[in-house]
Structure formats: C-alpha cells, structure tokens
Amino acid sequence: xxxxxxxxxxxxxxxxxxxxxxxxxxxxxxxxxxxxxxxxxxxxxxxxxxxxxxxxxxxxxxxxxxxxxxxxxxxxxxxxxxxxxxxxxxxxxxxxxxxxxxxxxxxxxxxxxxxxxxxxxxxxxxxxxxxxxxxxxxxxxxxxxxxxxxxxxxxxxxxxxxxxxxxxxxxxxxxxxxxxxxxxxxxxxxxxxxxxxxxxxxxxxxxxxxxxxxxxxxxxxxxxxxxxxxxxxxxxxxxxxxxxxxxxxxxxxxxxxxxxxxxxxxxxxxxxxxxxxxxxxxxxxxxxxxxxxxxx
Amino acid sequence: xxxxxxxxxxxxxxxxxxxxxxxxxxxxxxxxxxxxxxxxxxxxxxxxxxxxxxxxxxxxxxxxxxxxxxxxxxxxxxxxxxxxxxxxxxxxxxxxxxxxxxxxxxxxxxxxxxxxxxxxxxxxxxxxxxxxxxxxxxxxxxxxxxxxxxxxxxxxxxxxxxxxxxxxxxxxxxxxxxxxxxxxxxxxxxxxxxxxxxxxxxxxxxxxxxxxxxxxxxxxxxxxxxxxxxxxxxxxxxxxxxxxxxxxxxxxxxxxxxxxxxxxxxxxxxxxxxxxxx
Lengths: 296, 278
Ligand SMILES: Nc1ncnc2c1ncn2[C@@H]1O[C@H](COP(=O)(O)OP(=O)(O)O)[C@@H](O)[C@H]1O
Ligand SMILES: [Mg+2]
Fold this sequence. Notes:
- The complex is a heterodimer of chains A (296) and B (278).
- Chain A has 296 residues and is mainly α.
- Chain A has two domains: 47 residues; 221 residues, MetI-like (MetI-like fold, Orthogonal Bundle), CATH 1.10.3720.10.
- In chain A, 83% of the residues lie in helices and 0% in strands.
- Chain A contains eleven helices and no strands.
- In chain A, helix 3 packs antiparallel against helix 8, helix 3 crosses helix 10 and helix 5 crosses helix 6.
- The longest helix of chain A is centred in the first third of the chain and has 52 residues.
- The radius of gyration of chain A is 27 Å and the shape is flat.
- With 278 residues, chain B is α/β, with parallel strands linked by helices.
- Chain B has a domain of 155 residues: P-loop containing nucleotide triphosphate hydrolases (Rossmann fold, 3-Layer(aba) Sandwich), CATH 3.40.50.300.
- In chain B, a hairpin with a 6-residue loop joins strand 1 and strand 2.
- The chains are: A mainly alpha (296), B alpha/beta (278).
- Bound molecules: adenosine-5'-diphosphate and magnesium ion.
- The site of magnesium ion has 4 residues of chain B, from helix 2.
- Magnesium ion binds next to helix 2 of chain B.
C-alpha cells in the first residue's frame, strides 16, 4: 500500500500519510465494532424485555381481574408448578425425547434413501411419487388411534407417528435438492469422465445438503408434534401424557409447565439439527444461501 | 510443453485438422413449434489453433459448443475429433462455462484437482501442475480459499485451471468472461493468451465481444442470427503475443469493422432506433 503513495498530496511524507489513513481506518473499524455489539445486545435484550413485560402484565392482570388459576394461572404459579414437578417433567420429558429422536432418526434413515431412489429410478418415482404426495392428504393425527390398535400402548406407535409426520419434508427436500443442481455441474462431470456413482456422491449429494438440512429442520419440529399426538392417543408416560392427566385433574399450572418442558425439548432438538448442519456444511456463507433458499 | 517446443514460436498452427464439424444441424422440439438453432454448420479447427465464434444471442453458439463436446447429440450432421466421430460426451477436453461452476465446498486447489481425481491422474504430479496453473493466472496464495472467498474473476480463473490441469488437446469456452467487468476481462484475456501460448491447445472460444475475439483469435467465425449459419471466417493477421496496444492497430480495426458491418447489415446492430424520428 505505502509504496503507491508517491502521488499522495503535497508535503506530508508517506509515513505521515499512512498514519493518518490508519487513524481513519481505526475509527471506522471501531464504529463497526460498536454497532455490532449494540445489535447483539438488542437481539438478546429486546426479546427478554418483551417477555418480562408480558409476564408482568399476565401476573398482575390475572390477579387484578380475579381470573381463576385453573383458567389462566399467573406465571408465578406456573413457576411453582415447574419447581414442584421437576422430577416428573424430567422423567416424562426423557420418554418423549426418546420417541422424538427415534421417529426423527427413522424418518432420516428412510426418507433420504427413498428420495435417492426416487431420483435415481424414474419408473419408481413415477409410480411412488404421486402416492407419496396424495398420502399427505391423509391427516396423520387421525391414523394415530389405528396405530394404537395395531401396536399397543408402548414406544412403537409413538415413534411411528412421529416418523410418519416427519419424513415427508425430508423426502421432498432431499428429492428437490438432488433435482435442482446446476445443469453445468453435471455437464462438467460428464466431460471429466466422472462415473455416475462419483457424480452422485461427489457432486450431486453435497450440492443437495443445504436443502436436505432445511427439510430436517422442519422434520424435527414435526416429530415433536407426532410424539405428543401418539402420547395423547394412548400411553402411560411422556409429556403428552402429563398434559393429558394435568388436563383431567384441572391442574392448569402443570399443563403450562408441561408445555414449557415440551418447548424446551423442541428448541433443544432444533439446535441439535443446526449443530449437525454446521458440522456438515462448515461454511456459514453456504448455509445462509440455503436458508434463503428454503424460505422461497 | 513438449508440443510448444515442437511448434514455431510465432504461433503457427499445424495443418492437422483436430475438430471437424460437418454440416451440423440442430432443431429443438418445443411445444410452441420446432426451434431451428443451427443450420448446416461446417467448420474445422486445426491443432493448436485459437478460434473464436461470434454471433448474436440465441444464434446457437452454446448449442454448437455442446454438440462439439458430445454433450448434446446433433439433430443432423457429424462432429469428428482427431478423425473419430463424436457420439458420446468427449472426455479429452476442458470446458469453461460462463459461470465458474465450482463446487462450493472445495477450495480453489481442490476444485482444480477434481478433474485429476475424476481421471485418476497421479495425485502428486497433478497437484504440482494445478498449483503452477493457479500461479500462472495470479492465484498463488489463494489455493486454499473457498469459492465464496474469491472474486468473480478469480473464480473464473480457477475454472480455467480446472479445464487445463489434465493438459487436454482442446479447450472449449462458452462466453467465459461474459459476467466480468471490463478490466477483469482484459486481464483474463491476457492470461488466457499466455496459457494458450505455453499449452498450445486448440481453443474454441464463444464470445459476444468482437474485441475479445479479434485480440485472441487466429480465426474468427461469424454466425448469423438464428438459425445459426456460418457467415464469415476471418483470419486475424496480427503477430503473437498480442499486446493491448495492438487494439489500436489498423489490422485490429479492419477486422472489428468487418464484423461490426456484418452485424449492421444483418440487423443485429442498428445505428438508429426505428421508431424515433427527429
Ligand atoms: N433445450 C432447448 N429447447 C428449446 N430451445 C432451445 C433449447 N436450448 C436452446 N434453445 C434455443 O436455441 C437457440 C440457440 O440457443 P443457444 O445455443 O443457447 O444460443 P447462444 O448460445 O448463441 O445464445 C435459442 O433460440 C434458444 O432459445
Ligand atoms: Mg450461449
């Protein structure tokens, strides 16, 4: 840089010029740092503020209006319930977590290879794809009782319902991801004499990864719903079962506590999928692209 | 390298025909009626020759390129390369598209090495060559950068290196600099000339830019609007290596002028808007 400063203005030496420029640079950079720090604080601070304000309104609103706790308990009561039923929630939360993970895992293990088969085998795709899409018109929640009839009250029906709900976005996103590769990439592979297998695993599948993960993020939230529905329909454990019994005994604070526990499980699992995505696609720029893509 | 040594330093090409495109016609079937893209196009490229194909958008340049590469079967006519009829994707070539088509999860070097991996070339030799090609186009020090960390011009340079790492006898380029700014284009044109002078591959270079075509080519093939036919073949009689200053030479002007006049004649260019009168 400093060697090109021959043309710099008038009397100041190249060194002085450099110092002056460095000062400006430092000021601009400091401004950026300040702005990002402020933005980070705001990103965390505002939501907390909103939650606190709503919590306070809720707390004092319900008391002032004399709303009975079995209709809408104030947050303090919910917190008490959370503390009192800590062990119960943890045990049942674990049961639900296992169902979700098994259901989600199954939907990945079945969904991704199924999408590959759909892609690689057009005849199979033509016969199965319409069935797959129309099967989505069947409300899976309505099938849940049938699963209880077939598979009893144990773990299996819950896992299957979670799987059934979660696997569709994985299949669709994987198939779309495999399909929507840049045409030139494939032409290039052919001109390189790359085998069909190598083209698939070295180019097509990695290109599809961001879209596949987009599907997985939808799937994990759906798997939570599936597991809870399974527990609603029949079972003796899990957060869904806790909700059901709390409802039966009009223990509304526990109902809220259960919903909070479920939310925590859901968010934790979502973050886990995001972590897996981070490991699989290390470059933030590429992940961002994908995120822009799956909202479209 | 050996080939370059066997060749006259002034850039003479041999008489051996490498690429022979013989009455190639391409018609695309489409719901709105058949599209005639190419109409009996015949041309030949000699080994080591640099040929540009210039023509208006939609005249079938990319189509011709695809057919020459064996990536698209022609509706009629044949392509021969080194005497052999092309009836499947050719692998004895390098291709550069308008977009760099890099794999986002591979570094610059790894992208170039994909070509070597696909061909199972000895890795150490291939990597040495990949590095030297990258250095030759000014990318020394950027070997381990990912595509999203590189500028558009740098990415296209990587894609050119990838097309050359296996020392192919032919290089097909489809508007490779079309998406770049003017200054970057100039630099890449100079880099390409240098690569060509040391590698001596046969180049088919599709471009919109008359200046690029004149600067780089031994011969320019001018195409008509769709259905693409070959209208002219112009030999560019400028010494090698060409310098930016030659863009002001009489020969350069004469050739540019000839192509421009042809496009004016064909209505590809209009000097006065039809609807406006003063
Ligand atoms: N797959 C296709 N189906 C129908 N028409 C096509 C197809 N590919 C190209 N064309 C048409 O053929 C003509 C030539 O296309 P192309 O070779 O891409 O031209 P160029 O590269 O010179 O711009 C264009 O009019 C284009 O619309
Ligand atoms: Mg084109």
